[in-house]
Specification:
By secondary structure, the protein is mainly α.
């Protein structure tokens, strides 16, 4: 019926940026973080490069921006500065290993071994500093799996790491065992391990419920977090009940109202013909209330716009209502406003106007790789493959390590049934990237990778 796109899942998410208490974050650093989340990596550099007295977090964010732009040597230099200020920080050490690793991938025959060894050493140091650092553990495991013995890799080392991975995350431990079994061509064992990992994975969110369900005197934020956990588990009716409890405690909170709309929307998608209309109307009302409470809530605005675009008039949708919302979207984010106009024009089959709007959005936010991808995907869907390839190449140049770029480029290659080897390579890079809840789930990327390889 309509699409809902949840964004950051608060405490449920695995945050890739170093956490800093809100009171300790400078205005420039906070602004740079927002730019990073918007994929405006050059903007991060513009804001932070000339900041006086850079602290470790600042150097790390500068390094992450350089990393996403493919400037891996400069990224490594910045992570080294973070570590010089905070030598016991596992996260900074892990990012340094990633930067060395990317340098090794493109280095010549003489330089690559040394960089690979530095990669391993950084990952090992990161794990030693924080044995619960899941991402560092996973990257170190993959290094051991893929690297030859003279560089410090090997299946025996990988196998010895599995208990530590499993201790941190049981499901991830089974997945690691599956990878090892597959490497040894024991495909029956690999399948058994993967099935066990899949059985365990849904319980990851369940652990949040175990911790919070018995908490006394739950506040609005606790109920919202419980609702988000239920939402992620597909228990949308129970999620809605918990968001309603959040709202009962804080009725003026736009975020809680938006989440309630999402839960109603998910219920509507799977409801029968008698229940769906009522749930759809409740979805719209919650989105509208969320926007009324906070007109600058971008996610609520976008979900309400998509509802209006997709829902029929008798449920309160319609293109006229969508069009009337665009000035409010544009006031919050001018580029997003042009993207909304493009969606509306495409819905009305005015493809020339849609393209113009997408190009204007890209002009307004040329360093946001998402805007470049919007145009590339539009051109691809229009059958303009050569032009689409050029714009995708522009996105890859802008942010060669962006997971969003890697996945979208691969997905369209596979959809078009061409360059499947390159698509597979891109997806393999995607699966090794630092992902967040805003990225396509690994499971979906793995399925796409199977298609690329003819599986």
């Amino acid at each position: 019926m309509f699409r809902l796109f949840p964004s950051i899942f608060f405490a449920l998410a695995s945050v890739t940026l170093p956490a800093v208490a809100a009171t300790a974050v400078s205005g420039d650093l906070e602004r740079a973080r927002r730019l990073y989340e918007q994929t405006d990596y050059q903007g991060v550099l513009d804001v932070l490069s000339h900041a006086p007295d850079k602290n470790a977090e600042t150097w790390c964010l500068l390094g992450q921006a350089r990393f996403m732009m493919g400037e891996n040597k400069r990224a490594a230099e910045m992570f080294e500065k973070s570590i010089a200020l905070e030598p016991q920080n596992s996260t900074y050490m892990h990012w340094l290993g990633r930067a060395y690793g990317r340098q090794a991938e493109s280095a010549n025959f003489f330089s690559a071994p040394g960089l690979a060894i530095k990669t391993r050493q950084a990952f090992e140091r990161s794990v030693a500093l924080d044995p619960s650092n899941k991402e560092a553990l996973n990257d170190l495991f993959e290094f051991y799996m893929d690297a030859p013995g003279f560089l410090g890799g090997g299946l025996t080392r990988a196998e010895l790491l599995i208990p530590q991975i499993a201790h941190t995350d049981e499901a991830e431990g089974y997945f690691a065992r599956a990878q090892l079994a597959r490497k040894r061509k024991d495909f029956n064992s690999a399948e058994q391990m993967l099935r066990r990992a899949m059985e365990l994975a849904p319980r990851q969110v369940g652990r949040v419920l175990d911790v919070l369900s018995h908490a006394p005197d739950k506040n609005a934020e606790t109920w919202c977090l419980l609702g988000q956990a239920r939402f992620m588990m597909g228990e949308n009716k129970r999620a809605a009940e918990m968001f309603e409890k959040s709202i009962a405690l804080e009725p003026q909170n736009s975020t809680y109202m938006h989440w309630l709309g999402r839960a109603y929307g998910r219920q509507a998608e799977s409801a029968n013909i008698f229940s769906a209309p009522g749930l759809a109307i409740k979805t719209r009302q919650a989105f509208e209330r969320s926007v009324a409470l906070d007109p600058s809530n971008k996610e609520a605005l976008n979900d309400l716009f998509e509802f209006y675009m997709d829902a029929p008039g008798f449920l309160g949708g319609g293109l006229t209502r969508a069009e009337l919302l665009i000035p409010q979207i544009a006031h919050t984010d001018e580029a997003e406003g042009y993207f909304a106009r493009a969606q509306l024009a495409r819905k009305r089959k005015d493809f020339n106007s849609a393209e113009q709007m997408l190009r204007r959005a890209m002009e307004l936010a040329p360093r946001q790789v998402g805007r470049v991808l919007d145009l590339a995907k539009f051109l691809a869907r229009s059958g303009r493959v050569s032009e689409s390839d050029q714009v995708f190449a522009q996105a890859l140049k802008l942010a060669p390590n962006s997971p969003q770029v890697l996945y979208d480029r691969a997905a369209f290659y596979i959809e078009q049934k061409r360059n499947l080897d390159e698509a597979a390579a891109l997806l393999e890079r995607y699966l090794k990237s630092p992902l967040t809840p805003d990225n396509v789930p690994r499971e979906k990327a793995i399925e796409l990778l199977k298609q690329a390889k003819g599986g």
